[in-house]
Design brief:
Alpha-Beta Plaits, 2 domains, alpha/beta, 6-stranded mixed beta sheet, 15 strands, TIM Barrel, 8-stranded mixed β-barrel
Length: about 450
Amino acid sequence: MAGRILASSLLENRSRRILETITARDMLTEAWNYNRFLLQGGERLHTVEALQAIVTVDIKNFKAINTQYGYEEGDEILKQMRSLFNYFTRGNECYARIEADKFVLLLEYNSLNGLQQRINQLMRRIEQIPENRLGVSCACAAGVCLVEQGDQNMSLLVDHANMARNSLKDYHKSAYSFYNKEAEQKLIRERELTLRMKSAAENEEFVVYYQPRIGLKQKKIVGLEALVRWKTGEGTLISPDDLIPLFEKNGFITELDLYVFERVCRQLKQWMESGHKLIPIGVNISRVHIKEPDFLKKLIALCERYGIAPQHMELEITESAFLHNQDIVMAVAAEIKKAGFALSMDDFGTGYSSLSLLKDLPVDIVKLDKEFFQKQANPRERIIVTNVIRMAKQLGIQVVSEGIETRESEEFLNEIECEFAQGYLYSRPVPMETIEKLLAAEDEESV
């Protein structure tokens, strides 16, 4: 009889542990699951007097580990992360697995500096897990939300920590970010724009503006750069500084590139049908778009649809794209040239390998970054700009100086025989109606 009672008690305890694992613990790592963290962590917000912080953390490109080494290896890394957190937390601190490689911790701290040191230490140890196991280097990201007096909603605090973590851009090193209300407002704005972007394209709210390129000898417009603006249904104009980084992050930039390219093709066709003289128009191509295997085919197809010869189009790629994806971009650049498009390198001079790129890259035009001309150049800067222009000419490459705003800058360009310029001194980016008026005025002057 006693044996039956003991066996029944053991079975009941085992069942309770199994039930606890199912309802309160993550099945893979046996860490707390998110629901238990919200419950237990929420209680500690009220009962613990120490300063506390919510930290969410994950490994960058964890999917690549699963893909390259298999899910079993990925699972082992997650289990080791759980062991690390178990060792790392103390006292009333706790942690849980949210999903995939995302974990959340409730930490105590005495000073902000001490908390930062612990987070740095934690990230270094997370980095070591895949490095020791697989020999691969990984970065991790962490978001931190400091618990303030009166905070009671644990789920909201975790959301804030996630906002801070998601605010980290294209990071190649481990990094963390603290939540703040300004970041929250920015994220809310980004979400709003993301929800509206596809309908904005369908409603043609994206408007193409054009900035003239001036031939300094002729004092005339010799080309245009197409630049996109978002003119909302309410009439608000959203600048590219707010659009491009967001759209590169969410992938919509590829659709926007094609949208602008097609509008430029339409414009050139309209000029052809009206007998207007054609001038080349440059279109920016995002570094995200370059990685798309068929992006050039799409551009060629658009040219064919509108009957536009590729030589009337100039594809602009920023220097940073050449530096970060050099092998890919070199191959794409060769294909661009083969298709008949002109190729320009935008923002030239912002990277450390600018000059070495010129010997290998088949560009037709380099556009000197506007930073060279935002202030009066000192003698050393003048020597650098002078020799860059001279060298580019010797290589058969045209040079366009961007950001020209003063007559002093223009005089300097004339002194060093730079032939082309672009900037507010001549015109801001404006609608095509304004460009056509400028071109008409030039035609009248030459009669």
